[in-house]
Amino acid sequence: MRKFNICLIFMVLLMGCATTEKYEAKLNVWVGRDINDLTNAWGYPQSSFKAPDGNMVYVYGRQINVSNYGSFVCTAYFEVDNKNIVVKWRHEGNDCNSF
């Protein structure tokens, strides 16, 4: 149990270096790029759907469950036009941070 607590404290300190702004900067890199570049880098999305404007939206998510401490979740949505170009993104969740 002591090792777990030490690891948990270390993870919390390390997460303090991660920010939402850094995560958003990583998402911004994909705007204007081909969706195939994104799937080559991130792998296949968990799901996709058609947006009301006809564009496709690709969904990438992650969830980390920490017993007794809850879940850390982040979902990123990339909207792609009919030329397979990423035109915008958005994210949601309580763990959309990066280093």
The residue-averaged pLDDT reads 88
Radius of gyration: 16 Å
- Multimerization state: single chain
Order of helices and strands: HHHEEEE
Instruction: Tell me what portion of residues adopts beta-strand conformation.
Output: 25-35%
Cα distance spanning the termini = 28 Å
Query: What's the main sheet like?
Result: 4 strands, antiparallel
Question: Helix segment count?
Answer: 3
Which strand order do you get reading across the main beta sheet?
Answer: 1-2-3-4
Number of strands: 4
Structural class: alpha+beta
Shape: elongated
Give the uncertain stretches in residue-range form.
none
How many structurally independent domains?
1
| Helix fraction by DSSP (H/I, runs of at least 4) | 25-40%
3D architecture notes:
The protein is built from 3 helices and 4 strands. Strands 1-2-3-4 form a 4-stranded antiparallel beta sheet, with no helix packed on it. With 99 residues, it is α+β, with helices and mostly antiparallel strands. It is elongated, with a radius of gyration of 16 Å. The chain has helices at 2-15, 20-28, 35-42, and strands spanning 47-50, 56-66, 70-80, 86-93. Helix content is 31%, strand content 34%. It has one domain. The longest helix is centred in the first third of the chain and has 14 residues, at 2-15. The two termini are 28 Å apart.
